[in-house]
Amino acid sequence: MSDIVIRVDDLSVSYGNVPAISNLAFNVRRGEIVCVVGPSGCGKSTMLNVLSGLLPPTHGSVSVNDQVLYRSGQPLPRLGYVFQTHRLLPWRTVRQNLELVLAAAGIPKAEWDGRIRSLLDVLQISRFIDSWPMRLSGGQRLRASIARALVIEPSYILMDEPFSTLDEVTARTMRHELSSIVARTRSTVIFVTHSIREAVFLADRLIILTRSPARVFEEKVVDIERPRLYEDSRIGQIEAEVVERVLDAWGLDDRKRAEAA
Amino acid sequence: MSTGRTIGWSVLAVVLLVPAWFLGYHFTNFIGDPVEVVGALPAFLTSGDTWVNVGISVARVFGGLLAGVVLGTAMAFAINRQGLLKETLTPYVTLALRTPSAIAAIVSLSIFHGSEIGYVAVVAYVTFPYVTTGLLDGLRSADRELDQMAQIYHLSTWAHMRHVLGPFIAPYMFAALRNAHALAWKIIVVVEIFGAATEGFGIQFSYAWEYFRILEVHLWLLLFMAVVLFAEYCVLRPAERRVFRWRDAR
Fold it and tell me: Which chain A residues in 91-110 lie under 8 Å from chain B, judged by CB atoms?
């Protein structure tokens, strides 16, 4: 099996005559955290829908572990997804939410309890194993949602701005924890965010998209050793460089001019 | 408010009927003596005939309600799929909603020649449109984000129905069920009278009234109220509390 988990090749998606993604191409390697940043409305959600098996491309292809998605008869890949909101079933306990995806993924029942307990331990919410999601704080729900994504040992995990609804302190804690959990589980992650600083902190590699229709504007390897500190000056420096470069590409040149003035 | 206090207030509301009953007895000639009625209750309640009649009416209500829920649910899912099914089935639901209960009773009993199926059919006919309209509201407001989650994690159709859609529409189902349940009891009495049944609540009540046996009228009335309240407070509400126990965690 090659080291490439996801291969996006010449991907285009249109809604009627309106193109949302145009000739997008990138790869994601096993165990890599790739952060995708782009301006609002550039087509990030469309890209996630294609990568999650919900929306077939208009043109081009997406392969997972060398198997082309959306080809008839092809089994859908096992993936984890951490949404912007937790999307846990409020009428099922944390354990039941996890058991549901384990059952759907065909994991033998004998393994369920061990997997659930060890992940909830790592995510520090094991005492809430039999709690209803509505009883948990926003951060705890997010941890449960991350546990749901990891528990099935997916080929890859998609994360769609999962920290955007948290307060900054909780979000910083979660970023640190996510970074260490992903390193420990060697998961492959595509993380979509609006925050360039968050992307630089988390990513092994950044994929910067253009305005709609989305294509790759630039790829950038973040060469900072782990564990990282959110306040690290090198992160701030890379963030500033990226912002500087995308101002024109994202159509924010007026602001740039105003700031320069 | 705690469960104990809630029950206390409900009991008090019923107890307040007692003085009203005494007043009614003193100032009218068609309301019986409460003391006499209560005195006759033990013999009435220990009579085998009483419970045979109760059992028959309960069976008719249960059967009709079950058929109404099954039919109503199937119609709701069919109509929710849009297209031809929606266009063809919606007029039936509207028609059933607007049909006067007495007419439904007469037609059903004529079709089934006063057999047991006739009683069950008319309860089903009167209750199913309430189940359909209630469930349709639930299906139309289903949480698309949870549906998408279920799709991404490859939940089977059965798992999706059982763990995602079912619990989501449960409040709508319970609301519909309570309406249908109340309606079923109202209609069964009418149907038993129209159908000239030989057994059941309705016909016993009707006999007692026809021959002006006021004591019996009151006994049947009290028992009817007790059975309806039992179904509501000892069956439906506990079931509802169990299904929605996750809400108390908020």
Answer: 91-92, 100-101, 103-105
Task: Kindly state whether residue B178 falls inside one of the protein's structural domains.
Answer: yes
Other CB atoms within a 10 A radius of the CB of residue B145 amount to 12
State residue A261's pLDDT score: 46
User: In degrees rounded to 5, what are phi and psi of residue A85?
Assistant: -105, 160
Q: Do A103 and B246 touch (CB under 8 A)?
A: no
Whether A242 and A206 have beta carbons less than 8 Å apart is answered as yes
- pLDDT, residue B249, reads 61
Cβ contact, residue pair A132, B246, below 8 Å: yes
Q: Name the residue among B145, B155, B247 with its Cβ closest to that of A104.
A: B155
Range of the domain at B137: 50-200
pLDDT, tens digit, for every residue of B183-197? 899 889 888 887 767
Q: What is the pTM of this model?
A: 0.82
List domains and CATH numbers for chain A. Answer: 4-77+156-260 (3.40.50.300), 89-154 (no CATH)
B118 pLDDT exceeds 50?
Answer: yes
Q: Would B90 be classed as within a structural domain?
A: yes
Chain A residue with CA closest to B150: the answer is A101
Cβ of B249 within 8 Å of Cβ of A131? The answer is yes
Q: For residue B143, what is the domain's CATH number?
A: 1.10.3720.10
Residues in B closer than 8 angstroms to A101, CB to CB, are: 153, 155
Residue B209 to residues B212, B220, B248, Cα–Cα distance (Å): 5, 10, 47
Contacts of A140 in chain B (CB under 8 A): none
- Does residue B31 lie within any of the structural domains? no
Nearest CA in chain A to B169: A91
Per-residue pLDDT tens digits for B172-226: 999 998 889 988 998 898 888 877 678 888 888 888 888 888 899 999 999 998 9
Domain count along chain B: 1
User: Residue A31: which pLDDT band, with cuts at 50, 70 and 90?
Assistant: very high
B128, part of any domain: yes
For residues A190 and A34, the answer to whether their CB atoms sit within 8 Å is: yes
**Residue B245: is its pLDDT beyond 50?**
yes
Beta bridge partners of B163: none
Which residue, A236, A190, A192, is CA-closest to A80? A190
